[in-house]
Amino acid sequence: MDINKTTEGLLPSPTPAEENTPEYKSGFVNIVGNPNVGKSTLMNDLVGERISIITSKAQTTRHRIMGIVNAPYYQIVFSDTPGVLKPKYKMQEGMLAFSQGALTDADILLYVTDVVEDPTKNDDFLAKVAKEKIPVLLVINKIDLLKGQTELEAIVNRWRELLPSAEIFPTSAKEHFNVSELMKRIVELLPVGEPYFGKDALTDKPARFFVTEIIREKILLNYDKEVPYSTEVIVEKFEEKENSIHIMAVIYVERDSQKGILIGRQGSMLKRVGTEARKDIEKFFGKSVFLELFVKVEPNWRNRESKLRQFGYIE
Prior knowledge:
Blueprint: H1 3-6, H2 16-20, E1 25-33, H3 39-47, E2 65-71, E3 74-80, H4 90-101, E4 108-114, H5 123-130, E5 136-141, H6 149-162, E6 167-170, H7 179-189, H8 207-222, E7 232-240, E8 244-253, H9 256-263, H10 268-285, E9 288-297, H11 305-310
Helix pairs in contact: 8-10
């Protein structure tokens, strides 16, 4: 039976615009790599919004954070993941699990490195990336630090040996160099499929999560040594009104001495953190914010499974 003849005259002929309409594409693009190579900066640039916090310190990202890009004919679900490391605490085991999990559910993998790190660092994780059957895009970030083309060519050749099947994109996420070309290639590689989230979705995380991340960023920026890495932030109250938000957050530390450092003389340091965090939270939500911060001691929380489950490191 000729189906075209059978339906002839019953169905309207497609217009040229309909014939040229591309198929809708969607997919998960997971960003992995070692600490401090610029994964969060890159994702924020690709998404066009400040989803992940950024500092110069290692282990800034602790959770897997999604940033969603919606366009008329595609949806990209980016995932920023913690830097790959050898765990010293149960908390870091959870962080590593987020990174390893990103290898199992991606449609496209972005492996991010930079021009200064040792390519053999965490080579067992790199070996898993080399075995991937999905498209792998190797992003060599921070090329603005190089002096010339010869240095870049040497780095590219080294990575071609380590990840021979990957497509290589030298970039500078900070300077937005070559990020548009990377985005173009990601769209080309997306599989055909329906969207996973609503067209207005920006992330999978709730509002409270971004409050905790902003506060934690200010702690990372204002304190040195072990204090920033021994803290966790939990929002206990998030009361939103039309033009304002009342937030009450608790900063957990592991020792009394850390609590003293965090609070500072006559509360000066905690006040600084609160002021800086409040300004960014107001910018993020577009509302005035009343922020209350408290500090509590929770001994050895980084190795306690019950606390790690409460804090979202173990599902």
